[in-house]
Amino acid sequence: MTEDNKAIDPKILDEIIEAVQRMKYGEVVITIYDSKVVQIEEKKKKRFV
C-alpha cells in the first residue's frame, strides 16, 4: 500500500469531527471498504429515566 492510499481526505475528517462534536450521547460509526471511508453514521438514543 502506498502513502497515497493511507491519506484520508480532509473533507471526510471534517465530517467525522463535526459528527462527534454534534453528539452529546450516542455513537459515530465509520464504515471502511477497501481502505477507504465509505460511510459515516450517527446513532442517537433518547432515554427517559
- Principal-axis shape: elongated
Head-to-tail CA distance between termini: 49 Å
Compute the gyration radius: what is it? 14 Å
- Mean pLDDT, to the nearest integer, reads 88
Low-confidence stretches: none
Main β-sheet description = 2 strands, antiparallel
Classify the secondary structure makeup into a structural class. Answer: alpha+beta
Q: Count the strands?
A: 2
Discrete helix count: 2
Secondary-structure element series: HHEE
Secondary-structure map:
Blueprint: H1 3-6, H2 10-22, E1 27-33, E2 36-43
Antiparallel strand pairs: 1-2
Task: Summarize the entry for a quick read.
By secondary structure, this protein is of the alpha+beta class. The protein is built from 2 helices and 2 strands, in the order H-H-E-E.
Considering the chains and any ligands shown, give keywords for the structure.
2 strands, elongated, alpha+beta, two-stranded antiparallel sheet, 49 residues
Structure description:
The protein is α+β, with helices and mostly antiparallel strands and 49 residues long. The chain has one domain. Helices cover 35% and strands 31% of the residues. Strands 1-2 form a two-stranded antiparallel ribbon. A hairpin with a 2-residue loop joins strand 1 and strand 2. The longest helix has 13 residues, at 10-22. The radius of gyration is 14 Å and the shape is elongated.
